[in-house]
Write a structure and sequence with these properties.
- The protein is an alpha+beta fold.
- The protein has a domain of 168 residues: Muramoyl-pentapeptide Carboxypeptidase, domain 2.
- 59% of the residues lie in helices and 9% in strands.
- It contains 9 helices and 4 strands; from the N terminus they run αααββααββαααα.
- The chain has a 4-stranded antiparallel β-sheet.
- A hairpin with a 4-residue loop joins strand 1 and strand 2.
- Helix 7 packs antiparallel against helix 8.
């Protein structure tokens, strides 16, 4: 039976990669390297979302962006609230399973590298004309994560459109967690290798070994099986995955 994977597995893989990078390379080189890795990872995710949206005849606007997200975690605690709906939608997240996992493992220092870049990178990959402002973040010692969706007025009409689009899409755009873990690992591995060669490969391999000791060989093999996956093209979420 395959292990049940989720946001905590994703968070800890990222945390252990960042921790190992800082240990080996030092904080300043690691900061730049992790920034580049998160930008590429996020932009690849956003590009896939855009390709799915366009294939369905949907505009690359904020409503479409929110409806086409690739992950779902209904069984994991997540709390957010709207701060303002005009002149643009502002919201704050007060609990998320990624931060919960980092806090539990003492990895919040490393989780901040993810939250600093990921959302803006996904937006840029989806549509460079959109602009997301990210304020404080939970792993960055804030009491919430703050997001402002520039130019997006979330009035009742737009909210109804969002709910309809989400209902129409259902889970058709949601990818399995083994896919997300594979994407995170292999994209980061390639960026690290490009910048630091063998040292970067060793960082990723040691981090995956740490992850494997916690979650088992079968779970780690599900990540390894994605080595040849093309992360720039949408995959079929209903197709068998490792």
């Amino acid at each position: 039976m395959k292990p049940a994977l989720g946001p905590a597995h994703h968070a800890l893989l990222m945390g252990w990669i960042a921790q190992e990078a800082v240990r080996v390379l030092g904080p300043i080189p690691s900061d730049d390297l992790l920034h580049d890795a998160m930008r590429r990872y996020g932009e690849e995710r956003g590009s896939r979302m855009a390709q799915r949206a366009l294939a369905r005849g949907h505009a690359l606007d904020w409503t479409s962006y929110l409806a086409h997200k690739e992950w779902a975690a209904p069984d994991h605690p997540h709390a957010s609230e709207t701060v303002a709906t005009t002149p643009h939608w502002r919201m704050r997240v007060t609990q998320c399973p990624w931060n919960d996992a980092w806090q539990a493992e003492g990895l919040a220092t490393y989780g901040r590298y993810y939250c600093r870049d990921i959302d803006q990178a996904i937006v840029q990959g989806f549509n460079p004309a959109l602009s997301l402002s990210v304020g404080q973040t939970l792993p960055g010692d804030g009491d919430c994560c703050e997001f402002a969706y520039t130019g997006y007025v979330l009035d009742p009409e737009e909210e109804a459109r969002l709910e309809k689009l989400r209902a129409d899409l259902g889970d058709s755009v949601v990818m399995p967690w083994s896919y997300h873990l594979g994407h995170l690992y292999w994209t980061m591995r390639r960026v690290f290798q490009e910048h630091t060669g063998a040292a970067g490969l060793a960082i990723l391999e040691r981090a995956l070994s740490t992850w494997e000791r916690r979650f088992g060989t079968e779970a780690a093999d599900a990540i390894r099986a994605h080595e040849a996956t093309d992360w720039t093209a949408p995959a079929n979420p209903d197709a068998p995955t490792p």
